[in-house]
Structures are given as structure tokens and as C-alpha cells.
Amino acid sequence: MRQSYCLESKSKMFRDALRNCEDVADSNVNVMILGESGTGKDVAARYIHACSDRWDKPFVVVNCSAYPDTLLESELFGHEQGAFTGATRAREGRFEQADTGTLFIDEIGDVSLSTQVKLLRAIETKQIERIGANQSQQVEFRLISATNKDPFTEVRAGRMREDFLYRISTIVIRIPALRERPEDIEDLVRYFLRRSQAEFRREITSIAPKVWDFLMRYSYPGNLREMKNIVDRMVVLSEGGVIDERGLPILYDVTPTEPAAERPHFTTILSWKEFKRQSEADYLRWVLEQTGHNVTEASRRLGISARQLFNKISDYGLR
Ligand SMILES: Nc1ncnc2c1ncn2[C@@H]1O[C@H](COP(=O)(O)OP(=O)(O)OP(=O)(O)O)[C@@H](O)[C@H]1O
Ligand SMILES: [Mg+2]
Questions:
Q1: What does the alpha-carbon distance between residue 38 and residue 22 come to, in Å, rounded to a whole number?
Q2: Would you say 302 and 309 are in contact if contact means Cβ atoms under 8 Å apart?
């Protein structure tokens, strides 16, 4: 477990979250993991399972956002042969598969109200019934759920039942976003660099300073998932062991923290004529600087005659 994920951290907030995972591992309480997308909620759920005395028993995942309502129920509860059109064979549900182990219900914020009622009953009684069955069976599992939504908002908005939320959230563990643990960014980038070099069989010997700067300062709204993708992409696009600016994701603002000095700022409203005059003068001054005050060269580049340029220079008093 410790080899496949980076669980070292300089952030107290993240270490506390991990400590909570370890502390709850051996009890059978229902754990709800909260956190933004890509922060590592799946990773945390697997970590809890790995730390628990069920580590050698099944870890079964159901992603609720992947199925429409009726399919989700048959996924969870299973069905008997002939229970509905297309049910040509009996099928065991996830609850049964998770027996003696851990059931991880991911994206639990996406479960409909009517399915919540059925889930709640199954979680409370640990009795489940396959669809189309006339008998229930006892299952024994440890429940972990996760969502990137705010469950209290969901309850207030009437999308989540309060009794359901209280049942599944005996313990709540919140995984901090990457921007809440900026002290870990460098170590994580180095970790993902190591990992993707091994995965893609590439050896990286140098990284352009501008790229490194980007990696250290980017805001990573998509958290660890986004960081991993960016690093993978850079490693794959590297040539001769070098990650240069071509590896930078074009869709990202590569200079997020540079001062906005480029943007002109105005202080007074001038007449259009005066504004054009001043702007033209400023521009000509700059062009002359660039060309070493060579009027012939400047006029050629501007596409006007040397005579026209001389007139403007004396007009604006540029020399
Ligand atoms: N501590 C970690 N060490 C290594 N990789 C990690 C770590 N945390 C997350 N990742 C990687 O980042 C990606 C996202 O992690 P994960 O799927 O656990 O996030 P999530 O919070 O469940 O996201 P979502 O809300 O979108 O389901 C995965 O590729 C995972 O391997
Ligand atoms: Mg997830």
C-alpha cells in the first residue's frame, strides 16, 4: 500500500486525515469520505481497507454515478433469473460480493431518493434481497462511502434524505484539496515524475526552469488527478530525457502568478484625437528604441517613408 501511493506528507491537515483512516480502520463504523474531485478519496477508502483486519477480504466498489437508477439497484442487490427483461441469468449483487469485506459506495451523492430508501434499509439491517427474489439473505460488510458534493447542501436541497446521511456518516473524513496543502506540491510532483518514468520507460534528465516553475505554482483545481495527468503528459512528450516548454499543457495559463503589468491601465479619459496622438508617440518611441534610432530601418519596418517618419518625430517632439 505504501509503495503504490504517496502517503508521506508535510501537511498536518493531510496527515490528520490519514491518521483518522488508520484509527477507524478496525472498527466497523460507517465512514464517509468527503473531498473535491481528484483529492484521493478512492485512495483513502482503499487505505482504510488495507489498514483494517479485513485487508485480505474483498474490497468491492460501486460507482453510483455510473448507472441509471434501476441498473444501480440491480448492481447493488443482484437479481434472480427472469426478474426483468434481459435477466437471463441470476446475478449476485455487490452487497453479496462484499460479504466479510468492505463495500465502497462511491459518488453516493448521486443516488436517487428512492434508491436511498432501499440502501438505507440494507445498511441498517444487513439483510438484502435480490431483485425478483422472495427471500432475503444476511450479509456482513463494512461500509465506506464517498462524494465530492457537500452532503449538508444535498440534504437542504432535498436531494439527500437526512436519515440516510446520518446513517452513512458515523465518521466523516475530509481529504484536503491540493491548494490546502501547497507544502506537498514539490514532493508530489517528484513522486509522480518517478512513477511515470517507470510506467512509460522514459528517463528524464532535465526539466526546463519555466516548466518546473509552472509545476510548482499551478493551482491544480483537479487536484492529484490533474497533477498526475500533467506529469504523465510531460514525460510522454519528452525528447532525449528533456522536458521543455512543449510539455506544458497548452490549455493552462502557464504564467499564473506573473504580475498583470502587461495590461495597459489608464488614469484619465482623453479625447480620441489626443489618445491616438499619445499612443502613436509611445509606440514610435518604442520602435525607435528597438531599431537603435535608425530611422531608415524603423520606417522600413513600419511600412512608411523615412520622410513621413521624420515628420512624426518632429511633430511629437521625439528627439
Ligand atoms: N496519495 C496519492 N498517491 C498517489 N496517487 C494518488 C494519491 N491520491 C490520489 N492519487 C491519484 O490521483 C488520482 C485521483 O485519485 P482518486 O481517484 O482517489 O480521487 P477521488 O477523490 O476519488 O476523485 P473523484 O472525486 O473524481 O472520484 C488517481 O489516479 C490516484 O491514483
Ligand atoms: Mg473517486
A1: 21
A2: yes
- Report CA(32)–ligand 2 centroid distance (Å): 12
Domains of the chain: residue spans and CATH: 12-176 (3.40.50.300), 185-247 (1.10.8.60), 264-315 (1.10.10.60)
Report pLDDT for 252. Answer: 58
Beta-carbon contacts of 70 under 8 Å, excluding residues fewer than 6 positions away, are: none
pLDDT tens, 223-280? 999 999 999 999 998 999 999 888 777 655 555 444 444 555 566 778 888 888 888 8
Contact 256, 217 (CB under 8 A): yes
Give the model confidence (pLDDT) of 46-84 as tens digits.
Answer: 999 999 999 999 999 999 999 998 899 999 999 999 888
Average pLDDT over residues 274-295: 86
Dist. CA 39 → ligand 2 center (Å): 8
User: What's at 163, amino acid-wise?
Assistant: D
User: Cα of 5 to ligand 1 centre, how many Å?
Assistant: 9
Give the DSSP H or E segment for 151. Answer: helix 151-156
pTM of the predicted model, to two decimals?
0.79
Ligand 1 is surrounded, with C-beta below 6 A, by 5-7, 35, 37-43, 148, 224-225, 228
How far apart CA 95 and CA 76 sit, in angstroms, is 6
Residue located nearest, by CA, to atom 27 of ligand 1: 37
Distances (CA, A) of 205 to 13, 30, 161, 217: 33, 46, 54, 21
Amino acid at 118: K
Q: Select from 224, 230, 231 the residue to mutate for testing ligand 1; criterion: most ligand atoms less than 8 Å from CB.
A: 224
Note whether 101 and 139 are within 8 A (CB). Answer: no
